Amino acid sequence: MALKKRVPMLEQSPEERIKNFSEVALGYTEELALLEANRCLQCPTHPCISGCPVEINIPAFIKAICEKDYKKGIEILKDTNNLPAICGRVCPQEKQCEAQCVLGKVKGNDSVAIGRLERFLADLDLSLEISKHRSDTENTGKVAVIGAGPAGLTVAADLARMGYEVTIFEAFHRAGGVLIYGIPEFRLPKDIVEKEVNYVISLGVKIEYNQVIGRTIPFRKIRQDFDAVFIGIGAGAPRFMGIPGSNLNNIYSASEFLTRVNLLKANEFPKYDTPVRIANRVVVIGAGNVSMDAARTARRLGAEEVLVIYRRSEAEMPARLEEYHHALQEGIIFHWLTQPVEYIGDINNNVKAMKCIKMKLGVPDESGRRRPIPIDGSEFIVETSLVIEAIGQKANSVLRTGFPGLKLNKWGYIEADPETGATNLEGVFAGGDIVTGAATVIEAMGAGKRAARAIDSYIRSLKRA
């Protein structure tokens, strides 16, 4: 009889991991993976596939694990997912494929741990020498991809496998986008990202680093030199609350804080010349995955006390439960139904405290979550000398100057067809956070896959004309 509860994954103890940046979750051994894979019912309706934005044949790769045919399982994964080791670590499977699992809907049973099994197979693949996967198909056209994040890497890999000559233009000196600068090493090791980027390169994709379209290369030239263009530059501009005192020193956006640590190695200062200040008490605003990352990073950098302040309750928290539980284990303190209203500075304009107000929940707002309402007279002071705001991000203003003629919506994101990624400019497609606003890695990859199919169709139509 199959186990009712999913097989636990090995991980570092909280006492040990707060002292290092090594990966917290250690993955399944072969024995554990086989135990978990054999929980899958192999149901004929396979609703789990419909819950996956890139439509991985989940029952098939799990069946391959059960049969110990790992090569076949890897081939099934790679058939639709170019970045499985990344997805196996950071996808919100509990809200996607695993939420649809038939076993999980049976009282007393957990859904199959699909993400952990995906990671098990992908890590096996990474441990082997990456073979060349360059397509033998005759070159069918040239495509420029702007941005080497999840959407850009996916569209590039899919088109390369179709036989296209693909060049990615990346603004940073490393590929991966938010996978590199946004997600900490302890949740997604950089060498995992690098190996999967190398897989994309092995398909024949070229990457030109340190290129900012509109600055180092005109958008006009990109359009002239390629048959089609895909824009997947993400939405990395920070968003601040804008309350009184926001201009005080030592108030970071989460994107700046995490980029300093993840991409620029501020945690290894002075070995790397990128300092980041850490106080004894750090306050993080917001309760999404980025907030958890920022809070847990501050803890590892030496903060004795890290508070997370969120205006709604625990039930409305957008972070993955797994990351929340890891944060609790690491001693992060949560203040629910609390909203900062003012920062208070010292004589040197450094933040020294923040005024907060307690909230209560009203009727649901446009997001479907209950609207937080201030409670009059409930203000109180929280002392802190370092604040990290993790309340979301917005589109980079470079779109308005670097991409002339491109139609944007009122929030500054690119207007694009949700099914094809087509924009108002002929031959120009877009997808990922720069179209939808902040979403998940796998949703960005799904947009990349849809755009790849649309770009292929578009270029073939040009050749038929």
Describe the structure.
- This protein is an alpha/beta fold.
- The chain has three domains: 10-128, Alpha-helical ferredoxin (Fumarate Reductase Iron-sulfur Protein, Chain B, domain 2); 142-236 and 394-464, FAD/NAD(P)-binding domain; 240-391, FAD/NAD(P)-binding domain.
- It contains 17 helices and 18 strands.
- The strands form five sheets. Strands 5-4-3-6-18 form a five-stranded parallel beta sheet, sandwiched between helices. A five-stranded parallel beta sheet has the order 8-16-9-10-11.
- Strand 9, helix 13 (289-300) and strand 10 (305-309) form a beta-alpha-beta unit.
- The longest helix has 24 residues, at 441-464.
- The radius of gyration is 23 Å and the shape is globular.
- The relative contact order is 0.13.
Into which percent range does the helicity of residues fall?
25-40%
Strand content: 15-25%
> Main sheet?
5 strands, parallel
Separate helix tally: 17
- From the N-terminal CA to the C-terminal CA, the straight-line distance is 60 Å
User: What topology, given as strand order, has the largest sheet?
Assistant: 5-4-3-6-18
How many domains make up the 3D coordinates?
3
Q: What's the architecture of the largest domain, going by CATH?
A: 3-Layer(bba) Sandwich
Q: In CATH's first tier, which class of the largest domain applies?
A: Alpha Beta
